[in-house]
Write a structure and sequence with these properties.
Blueprint lengths: L10 H10 L11 E2 L2 E2 L2 E3 L4 E3 L1 H8 L5 H10 L21 H20 L3 H17 L8 H8 L5 H21 L3 H26 L2 H24 L4 H17 L3 E6 L3 E5 L2 E5 L2 E6 L2 H19 L1
Antiparallel strand pairs: 1-2, 3-4, 5-8, 6-7
Helix pairs in contact: 1-4, 1-7, 1-8, 3-4, 3-8, 4-5, 4-8, 5-6, 6-7, 8-9, 8-11, 9-10, 10-11
Amino acid sequence: MNNRHIFRSTAIALVVATAFGVQSCVGGGSSNNELGDVPVDDRDSGLVVSGEVVSDMIQNISSPVEMANEVKGTGVGFSQGILNPAGMENKYETSFKKAVNLGVYAADLGYINTFNKNLVVVDYLGSIKRLADGIGVGQFLDFTTLTRLAKNSTNLDSLKQLSVTSFNDIDRYLREQNRSNVSTAIVVGTWVEGIYITSQVINQTHDKGLIDRLGEQKDIVEILRIVINTYSKSDRDYKALSGKIEELKHIYEGVKVTTEMGEPETQEIDGMLIIVQNEITHIDISEEQVKSIIAKINEIRSSLVE
C-alpha cells in the first residue's frame, strides 16, 4: 500500500486534525512534566532525546482522520457504541486522565464527523470543552460558536477554521507553560482511540487494508514507548501505561514492515507542479498477531477511559 506521511502537526494540532478533519502546522516544544522541563530519554538504550526530536517523532504519526476515512471506505456503517460515551469526563481526576481523554474524545469526534453525524457532535464538543477547562486551556475554545457551527453542516469550513485557531492557541500556551507532557497525553489518547476504532472494524470486516494499517503502527509504538518511558519516571499514570506499551511492543516484534520506493507522481500545489516520491510498504502480519495486538489495544484503551 502507498504510505505517505502527510501529518504535519504537533500534539495539540493533532487533536484539531482528528476532531475536525483538518491538518495544521504549529511549532514544536520541549518535553516536560507539570513541575518543569525534563529530558526525554530511553534508559535501556542510553539514548537521550530532546524535545525537538520528540516533536519530529510525533509528526510521523498518521492523522487518525486518515484512519477514520479508511474505516468508512470499508463500507461498514457508523457505530456510536464503540466510542467512549460523551459525558464521562467528570470521572477523570488527574491531569493525565483529563488530557488523555481529551485525545480520546477528539478521535471519537473525528470518527463522528467522518460519518457526518452532526447531532452527536454537540455532546462530544461539550465533553471536550469541560476536559479542556480541567487542564486549564478551556479559555481558548469558543464553545458557543463551535456548537452553533457544528449544528449546521453548511458551516463546516468555518468550524474547521475556528477550531484550528483555538487549538493552535492551546498548543502555544502549553509550550509557554512548560507542559508538553500534557500535549503528549493528548496524542496518546488520540492514537489509542483511533487504533481501537480501527481494530473494532477489523473484527467485523477482516479488511486487508485496515490490517496493514494496524501492522504499520509498529514504528509508532516504539516512538510512543520512548516518550512514555521518560514521563513514567515522575508520573504514576504514565508508569502504568508504560508497562502496557512495553507489552504491545513485544507483540509487534514479530510483525515485519518493509518499505520500497514506488513510482513518483506529479502533483499541483499552489499552482506549482512538484514531484512526489511515493513509498510502498509491505506488511507481514499473521492472524494470531492481529488478534494479540487488538486484545492489547483493547486493554490499554480500557485502562485510559475507565
